[in-house]
Amino acid sequence: MFNKILIANRGEIACRVIRTCKRLGIKTVAVYSDADRSAQHVRLADEAYCIGGAPPRDSYLRADVILAVAQKAGAEAIHPGYGFLSENPHFARTCEAARIAFIGPTPDAIEKMGSKSAAKALMEKAGVPVVPGYHGAEQDTAFLAEQSKKIGYPQLIKAVAGGGGKGMRLVERAEQFIAQLDAAKREAKNAFGDDNVLIERFIKGPHHIEFQVFGDSHGNVVHLFERECSIQRRHQKILEETPSPFLDQVDDLMRDTMGAAAVAAARAIDYRGAGTIEFIAGENREFFFMEMNTRLQVEHPITEMITGEDLVEWQLLVAAGEALPLTQNEIITGGHAIEVRICAENPENDFLPEIGDLRVFVAPETAEDDDIRLDTGVVSGDHISIFYDPMIAKLITWGGDRPEAIRRMQGALAETAVIGVKTNLAFLQTLVQHPAFLAGDTDTAFITKHNAALLQATSLSSAVLAAACARVLADEATAAPQTDAWDSHTGWRLNQSASRLIEFKTMAGEEVACHVHETPHGLALTTPYATTAFGWAINQDGVFRIRLNDQIQSAQVVRDRDALVVLTPSGRVSLSLFDPYHVEAVNASSEGRLTAMMPGRVVKLMVSVGDEVQKGQALIIMEAMKMEHTIISPRRGVIEHVAFQVGQMVPADAVLFSFNE
């Protein structure tokens, strides 16, 4: 086994690898960019070295610099994590030439699976079923358009070198093909340096089911069962679970057949290390090979939860030349596990990524071998940057069966909150309570079909407002005593019972007034919905027990200055303390401008000064957090000013265009 390894990654996965290394007594070397000087993986590692600027191309993609650091630090091996250099055959080959072990597959295996078209041809030879489509080398636009017509619609254009939804576009009609092809090629070129694409038939009622495989240098290959990854937005996963509810609806023959195909796929390339064979399964129960990810997956924790195995430890053992610790028959599973990805993004704005400071990040307390697990690389006070993936954390739960795992996830999400950046937490909390999810009806169109219900905000109620008021009053009671009567918040009145006005503003901008006042029988609370007897107590874990008349409810209230998040089992509500005498400046000309919803780089401009545009017309394409985002016109008008050109960086809230009537 190794004595010291370098982790060529950042964030959550770097922290995850460090955790296993600490348990095994292996020293760790972290690398970091200028933006990550205070990052958690830097603090957790035994040593850390700066490798360049914030953009990945200046740091985490600098193979030469990373290798030099590994040699300087005396690292015997490099763990690439996922993303960045994890599937770069040149980097793996360079490590081998420098006599530093690459904790991953061989360079040849990465190359064979790195091209989707070549991988599909290889899988066909190995007897693994593949999706009908075009996987060839000819990339002329007219030729691809002809192939598109032959395949039929709907269809998917995919980057040959791609992954993670980048360089992927859905084409539903022939007239959409050229525009979607251009977008896919442009995004693929930017993300992977290769704009070659393939075209595949879009499978009806598709389920994204992947199998975790492992091979070693002694010829052994096994699978550690499947993961259902069908719940996705922008072709990227946000919830994964195992076992697959879709496969559970039939006998084990389909699961066994898919597992055997996954092992055959890995054997076809003499695979070594951790990998994932991704299949698409249609509503008719046919399944096809999609691609192989030659690395550890983001969602690997759910496999660990049902098998009890540490997959990072397996990676280390295999890279050190040892045999797999278990044979196929020795691998057992138990229970059900679910993972959700907590991301800095705005579901109401098409899941566009968000950046900013994590002023507060709270989550359930977890322990080793617990049924709830949190994998993260950030804490309160950290910054979510434009340069990297917007994932904040992965929350994982295990249960003896699927309903128990779901109940634990519902409870865990009800204890998780972020203040400072917008997240998908409310969306996830609604998702794991949706009837279709509870029933296991989760194909890849799940979010599209249920988006309206999933985006429905938790209703404001007297119970929610009571919890918020209780937190405000409790904080004031524990604050330093006021020496000036004019600063008192007690609600004292001359010759009257005490009364206190607490005003909030919702995320939608609605102002809500609450009156807390004394009565002969105790406190009462008046909200826009009711007047009730009111009281509260705080448990040792900080959870509020709110009493309204004779009913008692529990709620967690997270607060940072004027921002509050009220967490209940049924949902969450974000509020801010409102000062009715505070005046904000209004930009009277805002209707004549279009501002950037997020920071990013201009990839393409579709209009010029003087162009007449219609509402909904595409104006500009920006790249942020490794994904392209098309920004459309909010109105009809004439372009008066274009503020940024292709290649320029755009700050958040910057004016992009101004319009005339």
Total helical segments: 17
- CATH superfamily of the largest domain, by name, is ATP-grasp fold, B domain
* Radius of gyration using CA atoms only: 27 Å
Structural class: alpha+beta
Q: Kindly, what is the distance between the CA atoms of the first and last residues, rounded to a whole number of angstroms? A: 70 Å
CATH topology of the largest domain: D-amino Acid Aminotransferase, Chain A, domain 1
User: What is the name of the CATH class of the largest domain?
Assistant: Alpha Beta
Based on the coordinates given, report the CATH architecture of the largest domain: 2-Layer Sandwich
Helix fraction bin: 25-40%
Descriptive terms for the model:
661 residues, alpha+beta, Rossmann fold, Dna Ligase, domain 1, 5 domains, eight-stranded antiparallel sheet, eight-stranded antiparallel β-barrel, 33% strand
Structural description of this entry:
The chain has 661 residues and is an alpha+beta fold. The chain has 5 domains: 4-103, 3-Layer(aba) Sandwich (Rossmann fold), CATH 3.40.50; 132-201, Dna Ligase, domain 1; 207-454, D-amino Acid Aminotransferase, Chain A, domain 1; 462-478 and 495-577, Lipocalin (Beta Barrel), CATH 2.40.128; 590-660, RNA polymerase II/Efflux pump adaptor protein, barrel-sandwich hybrid domain (OB fold (Dihydrolipoamide Acetyltransferase, E2P)). The longest helix has 17 residues, at 462-478. The relative contact order is 0.08. The model is unreliable at 583-590 (pLDDT under 50).
